[in-house]
Amino acid sequence: MASYKAPLREIDFVLHDVLDAGQLARLPGYADATRETVGGLVAEAAKLVEERLAPLNAGADAGCKWRDGEVTTPPGFKDFYTLYSEGGWIGVSNPAEYGGLGLPYVVAKVVEEVECSGSVAFALYPGLTIGCFEALHANANELLTRVYLPKLCTGEWSGTMCITEPQAGTDLGSIKTRATPQADGSYLVEGAKIFISSGEHDLAGNIVHFVLARLPDSPAGVKGLTTFVVPKFLPKADGSPGERNPVRCTSIEHKMGLHGSATCSLSFEGARGWIVGAPNQGIQNMFVMMNMERIMVAFQGLGLCELATQNAIRYAIDRKQGKATSGSPLIIDHADVRRMLLTMKAVTEGGRAMSYDTALHVDLARRHPDAAVREAAQDFVELTTPVIKAFLTDAAVELGSTAVQVYGGHGYIKEHGVEQAMRDAKILCLYEGTNGIQAMDLVRRKLMLNNGRLPGRFFDKARAELALAGADLDFIGKPLAKVLDDLEATTRWLRESYQSNPDDAGFGAVDYLRAFALAMLGYNWLRMARAAARSEDKSFAQAKRVTAEFFARRLLPQVHALCGAVRNSAKSQMELPAASF
After folding, report:
1. In this predicted model, what pLDDT tens digit does every residue of 299-312 receive, in sequence order?
2. Residue 19 within a domain
3. How many domains does the chain have?
């Protein structure tokens, strides 16, 4: 069985030595977010996950059970959910007025990383609840916030996001679910939704569905969508769950992985709901939740990267097989095994810095008193959200596969647990917008906003970091400078090409996103190498230096090949008749 130990030293290093998360304690409302407080909180979360959640993960692979519309979660999930929610872990970054801890968003994401390493299947239940809270907090009226937010914040009630329908996946304009207004101000919602994570389960006292539907007089397409809150049980006057609303779970999916997460088909059969926000503004309202969920999924990928990496390293240190050129019988002393492990370390440790940086900028965008700083921070979040979502979820699959490779034949056997991590990871590349959609969002939208301001600000930030690096970091500084030049030139090419040949951008988008992600990793590895050089722990500093060197020499140069591939015409490929495939 795969085991997990939270990388507390790494977490503290990235938060404080690399990103200076202590700056958040100087922002309004975040005075408690000191290094000591955050460190203590994360250590408590780590202990809880290591001792109580991680041991449930292997058993959770047996999956959820559906019977007559009711879903039973895997053994131990209900007890852990109660422990987790009563401990206040769901509301770490939610406002204190609703029962949350009121800590920075980045702190909640650190806790989420640890939770996802323990069991990413379990993490979906509180994760969707947090997203539902954020969507209602941003868009609902005072009456709805008063009824729903305190319950969601504490986890007493859980939440979902109901978008997808059998005929409407990415094409949200095809949604058919209808909402008919009633005399009392409520709506009757009718339609079918599929692939609804946490749509039915036995963990919480109520389930709050955030639903995308159409009003009778709404225009066609995405401009005619509206959001509604539709609870499983209608709240009584005192706030307790009352009458059962006609929302029925018709089945759960049997999946490649993530078996402990209930993925439901839901039938809304005249269920009562209440409008959230203005009519026909549903797509904007839903994307408040969707954008935060994409960051959540990036942290799910990071959690699985960490799980795969530390188990592969542990196995390689102990496993004896053959002899390395040094004569050592341990497989960690074979050059190719070290190549695999260093690749895993470079991606996981660099990915942690990337994802924490995005989360920290969410806090800056929300709370910084200077409007210019808030704007720049929001630009960074907008730009990097599709990058971290796509890269870290692809990485989770790749590193899960690499962990299996390190284990050899034993990795293919269920009892060791690493094949579960590989299977669990694949869905991350698909939900909350497939990684191809993330690439298109980056190229077709984020590069174009405000005349290219978003990527321009990133290049300025990265070059400012280069200016701070001394000659002892030339091993990464010089190749990173060349990568930034190549990527910036490719960014200009894409922005210009898209106007006349949008299919060129479509063909190149995935390669471009990966190139951008590797450049971001390079920027963060430069920062980590500089921070580690100041450490008094020489062993820690050496490990960081060697991993940074490996990244700079073995992975970062891939950017040039990717950029070269992007800058090509897709004309002949797009003209090939479908019948010729």
Report:
1. 999 999 999 999 99
2. no
3. 2
